[in-house]
Structure formats: C-alpha cells, structure tokens
Design brief:
The complex is a heterodimer of chains A (267) and B (347).
Chain A lengths: L1 E11 L2 E12 L3 E5 L6 H8 L7 E6 L4 H4 L1 H7 E4 L11 H6 L14 H13 L15 H14 L4 E5 L7 H16 L3 E5 L3 H7 L2 E6 L2 E6 L1 H4 L2 H8 L1 E8 L2 E9 L12
Parallel strand pairs in A: 3-7, 3-8, 5-6, 6-7
Antiparallel strand pairs in A: 1-2, 1-4, 8-9, 10-11
Chain B lengths: L3 H6 L5 H4 L2 H21 L7 H10 L4 H35 L11 H15 L1 H4 L3 H22 L4 H24 L4 H11 L8 H19 L2 H7 L3 H6 L4 H23 L5 H9 L7 H25 L8 H24 L1
Classes of the chains: A alpha/beta (267), B mainly alpha (347).
Chain lengths: 267, 347
C-alpha cells in the first residue's frame, strides 16, 4: 500500500493551510511528520487518510482515488489515530479496541476468531492487557492513549497514520510507543506520525517530513532534514547536539529572539 | 489463566459482564410480552380472557369478543409499538448526537410531529385520507430532526442540545397553540388538547394497521445503524476512518426517527420521556455500547409504556389520567436528576 499526494493544497476559512504538497508514503517505513504549530500537519495527515479532500491536487491510494476504492475498503488499509480523540461513552477498553475491527465486519456478522486474535495482539503489543476490563474514563491519559493506539493496531491495516501519538505520554511510555511504532514499520506496516519531540523523531524515524507554512521544507533521513539552518528557519530554535554510543541526538536549547523566524539573518 | 490472587482481588463483576447480551434481550422481550398480556387482561370491566378469545376464534360477535378485538388488543399492541419506537429512537439519537439527553420529546421531534399531525387535522386532510395523519406526523418529526442536526453539526454540547430542544419545542408548541386559537369551536380545540396529552385509550385496529408499516420500516433503518453508532463513540473523524459514511448515517437516522416517532405520535399524541429513561436504564447493562443499546432500549421502552398504560387504568382517578401525563410525571424528575449528575461530571 502506498499513498501519493500530488500538488495538494488545502484551505480553511479562506486561509491557505497547505500549498503544493507533493509526497509519497510507503509501507515498511516509519515517517515522522514534523513542523511548528500551525504548519498544517494535522490537515495533511487527514488528507492522506482520505478523511478530507484536498482543495486542489490529488491523493491516490495504490494509484486509485479514494472514491474508487470505497470508504470501507480504504478503512481496512489505513488506520487513523486522531489527536486527543474523544471517547464519548464509558466503554471498556477491550470493547473500544474491538471497534478497530469494524471495517472487517459486515452489517450483521458477529465477532470472528480473527477479530479476537487481532484485538488480543493489539492489547499485548501496547501493554494494555491488564486494562482490558477497565472503563476508558477511569484510565490515565497515557493508558487511554495506548488503548486508543491498540484500537488502530487492531485494524491490522497496511498503513497507520497517527496524530501526535506520544505528546501526552510520560518519557517511558514515549520511548516504548516510539519503539512500538518503529517495530510495526519493521514488520511491514507503513507508519506516519505527527511528532513534536525532535529528539524522539530523530532517533526513531526512518524519514522525516518537515512542514512549515503549509509547504514541505525538507523530506529525507533525519540527519539530512534536521540541519541547524532549517531548525532556525522553520522553528526559530537553536539546538544542542551530542552523541550517545555513537548515535547522534539533538535537544532544542534556545528560542531565537525574533517575532518571525524567517526574518532571522543567516549567521 | 485466573489465579487464586486474581479471584481474591476481583471486584464484584460489573453488570454488563454478569448479564450476557442474548439473555438480556430475551429477558426484556419476555417482560414486554408479559406486560402486553397484562394490558389485555386489565381494564375497567371484569373480563374473561379465555371466553373472549374463544368467541373471537369461533367468529361469535359477542360483547367480550368485540371488546378484545376492538379495544384491548389494539391498545396493548399500540403500547408495545409506540414504546418500542420511542425507546429505540431515543437510544439512536443519544448515540448519534453522543449525548445522553437526546430524546425525541426533549429535543422537539415529538412536539414537531404533534404539530404536523395537528396541521393535518385542521386542514381536513385527515378526513379525506386516513394516511394523512401519520404522514403529517412524520413530516414534522423529520423537520425537527433535520433542524437538530444543523445545530449538532456545530458541535452540540449538552447545553446547545437542550437549548436547541427548547427552541424547537417552543416553536412547535406556539404553532400548535396558534392552531388551537384558530379552532372553529371549543370542542375541536378541547379534542386536540386531550389528544396532545398522549393516550392509548380508544385506539382501534384501523390506526394500528396504518402505523405498523412505517414503524417497522423506521425500526429497520434505525437498527441497521448500530455499527456506525458504535464507531461514532470515537468521534466523527475516527468513525469516518473506520469506513462509515456519516452523511448516509444522518439520512438513515432522520428517516428512521421520522417514520417511527412521527407515526407513533400521530396515533397516540406526545408520550414523553420514554426515549430518555429507557436507554439510560439499559446503558450499564450493555457496557455503554451504543449499537447494543438500540434493541434493548426499544424493548425497555415498550415495557415502560405498557406499564404506564396499565397504571393509568389501575389508578382510581376519573377521568383516566392520560398516558403522556403519567410518563411526564415520572420522566421529568428523572431528567432533573440526570442533568444534575451530568453537570457534576462535566465540572
């Protein structure tokens, strides 16, 4: 499964959110979608998931339009994790994860053995087996997010698009979740995650897409994308760099004093 | 894999895990059937059910056979159908709007249906075409559901929904009052007022035959939305990402509510709060799953309506209390308690 976006634009309330975004998403890779607040990351992710049509440009899934594939078929191939996704009723965690199987179930068909296996696997992978009988409203923020992530894994889609899957987690669960997403990519699933933590993005992702002001500023391996110049221009920050056991890391260190980062003269 | 310590520390099983879903459905169906039977037996005149059925089956047009065929059976059947329609639609609207206060009566669907029926009553259409009355009710219910949807599309919190319901209710109420004001004679007005209170008394087989097809169609439409309502638990974006067409769902639920509630109201008048109370009582028993809540809320709604209708006949008040008055007397305090609790949870 692959997604191809070509010259995609999006607007909201007459304001341009994305302009001329062209990129491809493929299976087996962990792609981080990064960029400052308001860069259009969520809008792009929703368009890639087929949830919103672009104002201009085209999005194809394995070369076909969303309309041609059909909503249900697309739902079996792409799982989507919303940012701060609501859970409106006091469901039990297991019942919530089972919702991820809805694209596979007919209008009348009951729960199959395959459904149960997928749910069991998703609960195990996310470390939420012990929470299965808990009511979602009683979970902590981190537990809740892992259960929601298990819901997307239960779909067993070939692509997983996640909007800020680690923002609400404590450091340990951030590391575990990033490793989980990377493992899912190693196992063949294409993973795209909107990320704010540049250190985690640099360490775990195979590829980063840097979005700023609605356009792709850089797209490639983390070390090629996260240059000092781009971080200054896009985020308006300077970073501290180091290495642990030969593996490089970066840490946002200074907010550069300029109202608009783009006005900063090159130093 | 249950170990000793698991067993020791296990809290008492929650309700939804103690009662399996098929057993719950069967139990509620039995309850509704038993109340339906009780509704046939209980009445103002002593009644030999066996003899009446015997006469009816043998084709003897005795008084008891007539009472059974023309009064008792239609009343019980209508109670069952109307109650099921209200409970089912209440559960569906709550799932759709993701709000436990959504209810046909509270959000104005019932009063708009009543207005539609009153307009048909007035225009004289009902005299020429029997189907006109249910059609008027359905049109009113559909208009209110559409209006509600427009408001809900802008993110209906509990407050928006309640205020929207007040708006639709008062609009429908004032237009109904206008119709009463212009009534040609006081008796016509009085007749409408009593009809509006909601009652199952003195309805016949004709009305039953008239509303049964639209109600069944409405039920089928609503019940087929179960999966989509489950998905909506996770919000609209996620529901869409799970493969559900929300525009189609909206049309299905509005049509379902209009068919079921519109035709129910056109026969019985407004019977409030059944759609609020039934889903609320059953929600803990199905683990709050909106899809599973549909059928059991319909059955509970049928049971509640039949029980209330039996109560109005057992109460010594004369004239008989109207069914809608009794459900409102029970339902309104229930609503107040519910809002109280929701406010505490939101705080």
């Amino acid at each position: 499964m692959r997604i191809d976006a070509t010259a995609v634009s999006a607007t909201a309330g007459g304001r341009g959110i994305l302009s001329g975004v062209t990129l491809g998403i493929e299976a087996g890779r962990f792609t981080g979608l990064i960029g400052p607040n308001g860069a259009g990351k969520t809008t792009l992710l929703r368009i890639l998931a087929g949830l919103a049509p672009p104002a201009a440009g085209s999005v194809t899934f394995d070369g076909e339009s969303a309309a041609r594939i059909g909503r249900r078929a697309l739902a079996r191939r792409i799982a989507y994790l919303a940012q701060d996704g609501p859970v409106h009723w006091p469901l039990r965690a297991e019942a919530l994860v089972m919702l991820g199987r809805l694209p596979h179930r007919g209008t009348l068909g009951g729960i199959t053995a395959a459904d149960r296996t997928a749910v069991e696997r998703a609960l195990t992978t996310t470390g939420t087996l012990s929470l299965r009988h808990r009511i979602v409203g009683t979970l902590s923020g981190g537990e809740r997010l892992r259960v929601l992530l298990a819901r997307t894994l239960a779909t067993e889609a070939s692509l997983l698009l996640a909007d800020e899957p680690v923002a609400a987690l404590d450091p340990r669960h951030q590391l575990e979740t990033m490793a989980l997403l990377r493992d899912a990519a190693r196992a063949g699933t294409g993973v795209v995650a909107v990320l704010h933590d540049l250190a985690l993005a640099a360490r775990f992702c195979d590829r980063l897409i840097l979005l700023a002001d609605g356009a792709v500023r850089a797209d490639g391996p983390p070390e090629a994308v996260l240059t000092d110049e781009r971080l200054r221009d896009s985020y308006g920050i300077a970073v501290h760099r180091g290495a642990v056991d030969g593996q490089p890391f970066l840490l946002p260190w200074t907010a550069l004093s300029s109202a608009s980062p783009k006005d900063t003269p090159p130093s | 894999m249950s170990t000793m310590s698991d067993t020791l520390h296990a809290a008492p099983l929650p309700l939804d895990e103690r009662v399996p879903y098929p057993a719950l459905v069967a139990g509620l169906a039995l309850l509704a059937a038993a109340l339906g039977l009780a509704s046939v037996v209980i009445g103002y005149v002593p009644f030999d059910l066996g003899a009446a059925f015997g006469d009816l089956l043998d084709g003897r047009a005795t008084l008891t056979a007539l009472v059974l065929a023309e009064l008792r059976l239609p009343r019980a059947a209508l109670g069952l159908l109307v109650g099921f329609s209200l409970g089912l639609t209440g559960a569906a609207m709550q799932g759709w709007l993701r709000n436990p206060l959504a209810e046909p009566g509270l959000v104005g669907v019932s009063s708009a249906a009543a207005l539609g029926a009153v307009i048909v009553f007035y225009s004289g259409l009902s005299a020429t075409l029997a189907l006109a009355l249910p059609l008027g009710g359905m049109a009113g219910a559909a208009a209110a559901a559409l209006l509600l949807n427009v408001m809900a599309a802008r993110g209906a919190g509990t407050t928006t929904l309640v205020i929207g319901g007040i708006a639709i209710n008062s609009l429908a109420g004032s237009l109904t009052a206008l119709a009463l004001n212009l009534a040609p004679n006081p008796y016509a007005a009085l007749e409408i007022v009593f009809w509006l209170m909601g009652s199952l008394a003195d309805r016949g087989t004709d009305q039953l035959r008239l509303v049964l097809p639209p109600m069944l169609a409405g039920w089928a439409l609503t019940l087929s939305a179960a999966r989509a309502l489950d998905a909506l638990t996770l919000g609209e974006d996620t529901a869409r990402s799970l493969g559900f067409d929300l525009a189609a769902l909206r049309m299905r639920l509005i049509a379902g509510a209009a068919l079921a509630v519109g035709s129910a109201v056109s026969v019985t008048g407004a019977v409030g709060f059944v759609g609020l109370v039934a889903p609320h009582l059953l929600r803990p028993l199905v683990g709050a799953r909106p899809g599973r809540l549909l059928l059991v809320s319909g059955l509970a709604g049928a049971s509640l309506t039949l029980a209330a209708d039996i109560a109005v006949r057992l109460l010594p008040t004369r004239p008989e209390l109207k069914l809608g008055v009794v459900t409102a007397l029970i339902g309104a305090p229930f609503l107040i308690a519910l809002i109280w609790r929701l406010r505490r949870e939101e705080a």
